[in-house]
Amino acid sequence: xxxxxxxxxxxxxxxxxxxxxxxxxxxxxxxxxxxxxxxxxxxxxxxxxxxxxxxxxxxxxxxxxxxxxxxxxxxxxxxxxxxxxxxxxxxxxxxxxxxxxxxxxxxxxxxxxxxxxxxxxxxxxxxxxxxxxxxxxxxxxxxxxxxxxxxxxxx
Length: 155
Prior knowledge:
2,3-Dihydroxybiphenyl 1,2-Dioxygenase, domain 1; alpha/beta
């Protein structure tokens, strides 16, 4: 967790995130660390892996984020109509979808993702992960129905 805090503070000091974004990130870390420790949970959140937004024109949206914020191009998946840009240690996934202009989900980066252990942890909390067929990833919804993805930390 200290590494994630250090990254957030460094990004704030460089001006790449606002004070509000710094506080939001620290609050999310506090919320995730207060419910379980790494020793008693199979789910070790290391940060936000990506935020997925829906756009009516993914090329136009990608150009906006590249031009205005300087986000580098990571890749494009023509099959899923998604462009991914790098944002610090995370990513922005721009997906063709409707309604445009909404965040359709965010993804937690999970260290040492053990599929069986995380499945059991989810069951203990009354949460059923959706099987998407994607390796080392889970999709769940929070108590208000908001979609959350958990994905193995990229190496």
